[in-house]
Prior knowledge:
Membrane topology: Single-pass type II membrane protein
GO molecular function: acetylglucosaminyltransferase activity
Distance between the termini: 42 Å
Main location: Golgi
Keywords: Glycoprotein, Glycosyltransferase, Membrane, Signal-anchor, Transferase, Transmembrane, Transmembrane helix
Number of domains: 2
Shape: globular
Subcellular location: Golgi apparatus membrane
Largest sheet: 5 strands, mixed
Strand content: 5-15%
Strand order of the largest sheet: 4-3-2-5-9
Order of helices and strands: HHHHHEHEHEHEHEEHHEEEHHHEEEHEHE
Number of helices: 16
CATH topology of the largest domain: Spore Coat Polysaccharide Biosynthesis Protein SpsA, Chain A
Amino acid sequence: MKTRCAVYSFLLLILWTLCVLLLVRMKHSDFTEYFPPRASSENIQLFHKYNINCLAIYDMDPVEVGKSLVIRRKPVGEYKEEHLINLTSNCPLFIKSRGYDDVCLSEEEKGFPLAYSLVVHKSALMVERLIKALYSPRNIYCIHYDQKSPALFISAMEGLARCLPNVFIASKREFVFYASVSRLQADLNCLSDLLVSDVKWKYVINLCGQDFPLRSNIELVSELRKLNGANMLETCRPSEYKKHRFTFHHKLINGNAKYEKLLVKTEQVKTPPPHGIEVFTGSAYFVLSRDFVVHMDSSVVVKDFLAWSEDTYSPDEHFWATLVRLPGVPGEVPRSQPDITDLMSKTRLVKWEYLEKSLYPPCSGTHVRSVCIYGAAEMRWLLDYGHWFANKFDLMVDPIIIQCLEEKLEEKQKLFQPMASHTCHED
C-alpha cells in the first residue's frame, strides 16, 4: 500500500508542478472558454455544467487538471438554495430536467431495492446531486434535516420530497449537536420510518450531505448481493484514548450562539454497559441488512444499550460497531474476529491529513478539521481504491470532481446493465 501511495504522491507532485506552470502562463488569459453560456429556457439546468474533459481528469492530464484549478479559482455563480426551491415548485419540470423520469433499471435492480438515511443540514444542491447519483425508482430515501437548518434549506428538502414519490422527510426530526446522541437518533428516526414503508428494501445505507457514491446503483446491488445478509461497517477494539468517550459521563452545555451546545466530559465514571456488552468502536457510517434492522428495532438489549450510550461522546461511533458484534444478531461479526478498519470496510473512504503520504496520496483539495475535501486530481484514486462511498465533497471547494464522478457513474450504470440483464427499460 505504501508503494502505491508513493507512486500516487510522485505523480501528483509532477502534476501539480505542471499545473502551476499552466496557471502562471494563463494568469492574465481570458478564461471564458471554460465556462459555457448558461442554459437556455429550453434546456433548464439546476447547476452549471463545466466544459471539462473528465476522462482526461481521470488520466491525470496536467492541462485538463490545470483547467479544473482555474475553475476552482473563478467559480461560476453561487450555489443557492433558491435554485432548487424554484425548480421543485414545478415538479414535472424538475423531474424532466434532472432526468428522474428517464432512469433505466435492470431486472436485478428491480428485485433488490435499497434504502437510504440522509442526515443533512446544508447545501441543498449537493443533497439533490447525491440523491440523483444514487437514484432508482425502486429505492427509498429518507431525509432527516437538522431542526436548526436555515428555512431555505428546509424548504428545498421539502420540495425534493414533494416532487419525488420515493423521497420523504423523517417523521421525527432532531436538533443535531456535534458528538451528541442527537446525530445517532437522527439515523434511528429514519430507520424507524423506513421499516414501516411499503418498499421491502434489502439493505440500508446512511449518508451525510458531503458524501458521494463511487459506485453506480447496479454496482452497489451487485456488491450487496455478495454480502448475502452480512453487514458492512467498521468495528474495532477501542484504543485507551477512545475508551474515555464512553467510560465517563458527558453532558451538553449551552454555547455562545443561539442553538449552540457543546458536549463536555465530566469526571463522573459511568456504570459498565448493560447485559455484559463489550464495546467496539468504528464510525457513524453503516451498510445494514433489513434483517439486522428488524432485529435491532425489537431488541430489549439494543434499547438498553442505546439508553446507556446517551451520555457518551459520539455514540454513533460505537453504537453500530458494537451491535454487529452481539452474539446471534443477523449478519453477526463474531467478537473473536479481528478488527475491521475503515480501510477494510467499503462503507466510506475518508482521507485524514495526518495519514497522507503514508496511507494516502496528498489531498488535492483542502482540509477541514484534518479531513480532506477532495479535488479533481483525486478522481482516479477515489474510483480505483475500492470503496463504495467517499467523504468529503464540497461544491464551493471543487465542483469538477463532483461533475466528473457523476459522468463516470452514469457511464458505469449504462455499461453494467446490459451485462446484468438483457431487458432494461424505463420504470
